Automatic annotation (TrEMBL), chain A:
UniProt name for this protein: ABC transporter ATP-binding protein
Location of this chain's protein in the cell: Cell membrane
GO CC, alphabetical: ATP-binding cassette (ABC) transporter complex
UniProt main location, coarse: membrane
Keywords assigned by UniProt, alphabetized: ATP-binding, Cell membrane, Membrane, Nucleotide-binding, Translocase, Transport
Automatic annotation (TrEMBL), chain B:
Protein name per its UniProtKB record: ATP-binding cassette domain-containing protein
Record family assignment: Belongs to the ABC transporter superfamily.
Keywords: ATP-binding, Cell membrane, Membrane, Nucleotide-binding, Translocase, Transport
UniProt xrefs under PROSITE patterns: ABC_TRANSPORTER_1, ABC_TRANSPORTER_2
Domain annotation ABC transporter: ranges: 3-236
Function: Probably part of an ABC transporter complex. Responsible for energy coupling to the transport system.
PANTHER family attached to this UniProt entry: ABC-TYPE COBALT TRANSPORT SYSTEM, ATPASE COMPONENT (PTHR43553:SF25), HEAVY METAL TRANSPORTER (PTHR43553)
Cited InterPro entries: AAA+_ATPase, ABC_transporter-like_ATP-bd, ABC_transporter-like_CS, ABC_transpr_CbiO/EcfA_su, ECF_ABC_transporter_ATP-bd, P-loop_NTPase
GO CC, one annotated term: ATP-binding cassette (ABC) transporter complex
Pfam family membership, one: ABC_tran
Location relative to the cell: Cell membrane
TrEMBL record, chain C:
InterPro entries, per the entry: ABC/ECF_trnsptr_transmembrane
Transmembrane segments: 29-58, 70-88, 100-119, 229-249
PANTHER family: PROTEIN ABCI12, CHLOROPLASTIC (PTHR33514)
Membrane topology: Multi-pass membrane protein
Keyword Transmembrane listed: yes
Protein name in UniProt: Energy-coupling factor transporter transmembrane protein EcfT
Family matches, as Pfam families: CbiQ
Biological source species: Caldiarchaeum subterraneum
């Protein structure tokens, strides 16, 4: 079932010289894990903001086309309604947390919506539990590590019970180990809650294996939307400003040496499995 | 020796022990990658090189000058430090003035300033923006401007704090190229990074830090294939190494960083 | 500034910490008002002793003493001014000293009267108190945000200073005019940073439905318990006694002819 439909979307920021997005179309099925990649400044962040209503409600500019998210037309629905269907997590953990305690931060959107106290209590407890941060409940956001802060940011979004979560380079400020831990958490909540995830990332080598769909955005256009493995097999990622995971390169080299090497691996585990299939066969 | 750290200890005023007994030497013209997780002491170490931080115990000597006896301005003439968020230090109305700022502070003549600014902007492909406002540049251009600003006075030692954070593959390739070019010009390059794949390709000397201590120091291939040490430093090993390690039982040597070499090694055991 | 140390929250589990912040606010106000009404050194000293007692129960005496120390410069100034004006009016040394002591002493009580409130109340509770006082949510939010982002901005300031020093900027050298001009490379990037951060925060606020409902609810509540009422009753009683003594002209100082000679009422 299609949960996101983008049709012929174009957007130019007010005062911008050229369009940030130009006639973009995209479909996302419910439950997909979409990885959005591409060169810096190519339009990935703009696309994210079109999915949750920040464009056109928060950003001024020339907007044309149609975006339907979870049955709602984005340009006709107020952001506070959209936020309960599409949550958004930003790059800088520090600038998404407002309160002086983790609990307050997770409760913040629910308080803004005017929900009754009992329900807020229930949802806050639920969100803290899902993200495994109950032990951080009374801590101040400033004292937390980057990875912990991002978990709080995600919990605060989960409290609104959206069906889709959009994340714009959430691990930019984190070291690789924290990034992997965060991706594992994201994958876990996706499976547990049946969420649809749109993840913008440069760290392709850490995130690509989990993705069910790869979307490459460059120069305001979608230049590829399909299976991640196929992209690395058929295109030169570097030409699109996309990182080339080493195992993918390795797979391609093995393919050149052995014709029946099956597909491109996107994680060390996948590659190792593939190797073991070929043991004693050459 | 260009830079010497002698049993350096540093404790922040908040009480956090950031460096514990660090002793290391960097030779002139070397490229060294300081690696470790966030909080391991990499940035603290870099800040000791231009005197922003002075050791609470031990000493740091940069090109014969002891840092505790010199000012940041003095040391900065020898050591250019490019911070992580270097794009956040702009304040002038034109790119030219932004680059010239440091040169004026260091007492360069008008003529020399002009020459150096033009050279730096050309090196980083920014000459067309010379009269533009630095705030109107794109993200990538701002990062290049930050480097141009530091390189303008041609310090012999260049320190880069996480130069590849948040960058796409084209920008990273450019950064790699710049580092190599600068090294060819004789500069000593010290970079702090947790990007193992980038460092693996650069192939410098690698110093591993964990909780303020140096736990390993050696050639790139030696260190980035040492899985126990990488784990201690909370670093994820390069994908190639992870793959080869898991195929150990087939007789594959995991101490390889080069993708082509790894492919050949795997092919060899498969045809057995 | 050590004066402001008395306004920083210190976490704790004492009886005072657990009191409802509104009660503490009212008590602090009563202490302030008593100090306004009286100049009587006996009363002022009693107030200070009461405050000290409460501070000790809350175990925040370390910070409180720093406020007291921080108020010494200002108190000394008041002492000097009062001394000069009193002595020129009536050149009796002990009286002049007495007057100056009274005024400067009272100032110290003024400055530390709200320490009790700020030292034992979390910023969250302060925000809740402000909300209960019917302050519009936008202002409470601004207040909490300011507290929340102060350490962040302090870090930013350090980062900007480091970056500019690495470009040869020397902040502690040169004539006054140069030093003022040297603030520009610090202030401009800081300002730009604040603006950018505000924009990102605004986006996050939008995404978290800020302003969605006119009737904003809250997870945490302030509730007045028995011990709060008892404390309030005791404080109000003392306040009432103090006021009535003043109104009937029975200031404690008048009871001691010796002290009454040198100290003002």
């Amino acid at each position: 079932m299609k949960i996101i439909e983008v049709r012929d979307l174009s957007f130019t920021y007010a005062g911008g010289a050229k369009p940030a997005l130009s006639h973009v179309s995209l479909d996302v099925e419910e439950g997909e894990f979409v990885l959005v990649v591409g060169p810096s400044g190519g339009g990935k962040s703009t696309l994210c903001r079109c999915l949750n209503g920040l464009i056109p409600h928060f950003y001024d500019g020339e907007y044309s086309g149609k975006v339907v998210v979870d049955g709602l037309e984005v340009d006709r629905t107020p952001t506070y309604v959209l936020s309960q269907h599409v949550g958004m997590v930003f790059q800088n953990p520090q600038n998404q947390l407002f309160s002086l305690s983790v609990e307050s931060d997770v409760a913040f959107p629910l308080e803004n919506l005017g929900l009754p106290r009992e329900e807020i209590r229930e949802r806050v407890d639920e969100a803290l539990s899902i993200m495994n941060i109950e032990h951080l409940r009374d801590r101040s956001p400033f004292e937390l590590s980057g990875g912990q802060q991002q978990r709080v940011a995600i919990a605060s979004i989960l409290a609104m019970r959206p069906r889709i979560i959009v994340m714009d380079e959430p691990t930019s400020c984190l070291d690789p180990l924290s990034a992997v831990n965060l991706f594992n958490s994201i994958d876990e909540i996706r499976r547990k809650l049946g969420l649809t995830i749109i993840l913008v990332e440069h760290r392709v080598d850490l995130a690509a294996a989990r993705a069910s769909k790869l979307v490459v955005v460059s120069d305001g256009q979608i230049v590829y939307a399909g299976k991640p493995r196929d992209f690395f097999e058929r295109h030169n990622p570097h030409a699109y400003g996309v990182a080339f995971p080493r195992v993918a390169k390795l797979s391609l080299m093995m393919q050149r040496m052995h014709n029946d090497w099956d597909g491109v691996s996107l994680s060390p585990e996948e590659f190792v499995d593939e190797v073991r299939k070929h043991v004693g066969r050459f | 020796m260009s830079v010497v750290f002698e049993n350096v200890h540093y404790t922040y005023p908040s009480g956090v022990e950031a460096l514990v007994g660090v002793s290391v030497e960097f030779a002139s013209g070397e490229v060294v990658a300081l690696m470790g997780e966030n909080g391991s002491g990499k940035t603290t170490l870099l800040k000791h090189m231009n005197g922003l931080l002075k050791p609470t115990r031990g000493r740091v000597v940069v090109e014969g000058l002891e840092t505790s006896r010199a000012s940041v301005a003095q040391l900065s003439q020898k050591v250019g430090l490019v911070f992580q968020n270097a794009e956040d230090m702009f304040f002038e109305s034109t790119v030219y003035d932004e680059v010239a700022f440091a040169l004026k502070n260091f007492g360069f003549s008008e003529a020399k300033t002009r020459r150096r600014v033009e050279w730096a902007l050309r090196f980083f492909d920014l000459e067309q923006y010379v009269s533009h406002s630095p705030f109107l540049l794109s993200g990538g251009e701002k990062k290049r401007l930050a480097m141009a600003i530091i390189l303008a006075w041609s310090p012999s030692i260049i320190c880069l704090d996480e130069p590849t954070i948040g960058q796409d593959s084209l920008q990273k390739e450019r950064m790699m190229h710049m580092i190599k070019m600068l090294n060819l010009q004789g500069k000593t390059i010290i970079l702090a990074s947790h990007d193992v794949e980038f460092v693996a390709e650069l192939n410098p000397r690698v110093v591993l830090l964990s909780k303020g201590r140096i736990i390993a120091d050696g050639m790139c291939e030696e260190i980035l294939t040492d899985l126990p040490k990488l784990e201690k430093a909370s670093l994820i090993p390069p994908q190639v190494v992870l793959v080869l390690k898991r195929l150990e039982d087939l007789g594959v040597d995991h101490r390889v960083l080069d993708v082509e070499q790894a492919a050949k090694n795997i092919a060899k055991v498969l045809t057995v | 500034m050590s004066l402001f140390e008395g306004l920083r929250f210190r976490p704790g589990n004492s009886f005072i910490h657990k009191l409802d912040p509104r009660i503490k606010l009212v008590t602090s106000l009563m202490i302030l008002l008593t100090a306004v009404v009286y100049l009587d050194v006996i009363v002022i000293s009693t107030l200070l002793l009461i405050e000290a007692g409460l501070i000790f129960v809350a175990k925040v005496h370390g910070l409180w003493s720093r406020t007291l120390r921080g108020s010494i410069p200002l108190a000394s100034l008041v002492f000097l001014i009062t001394f000069i004006s009193q002595y020129s009016r009536e050149p009796v040394l002990p009286t002049a000293v007495g007057y100056s002591l009274a005024y400067s002493f009272r100032l110290v009580v003024f400055l530390s009267s709200f320490s009790l409130f700020f030292l034992t109340t979390t910023p969250d509770e302060i925000a809740l108190t402000l909300q209960k006082l019917r302050m519009p949510y936008e202002y409470t939010f601004a207040f909490v945000s300011a507290i929340r982002f102060t350490p962040v901005m302090a870090e930013e300031l350090r980062a900007v200073m480091d970056a500019q020093r690495a470009r040869g900027l020397e902040l502690d050298k040169g004539p006054f005019t140069k030093r003022v001009r040297n603030m520009i490379p610090i202030l401009v990037p800081l300002l730009v940073n604040v603006l950018r951060r505000s924009y990102e925060l605004a986006e996050a606020m939008e995404v978290k439905c800020f302003g969605a409902s006119k009737k904003r609810t809250s997870l945490r509540v302030l509730s007045v318990k028995h011990r709060d009422l008892l404390f309030l009753a005791a404080a109000t009683a003392l306040f009432a006694v103090a006021l009535s003594l003043k109104m009937t002209g029975l200031e404690p100082l008048r009871l001691s002819p010796l002290l009454g000679k040198y100290f003002p009422v």
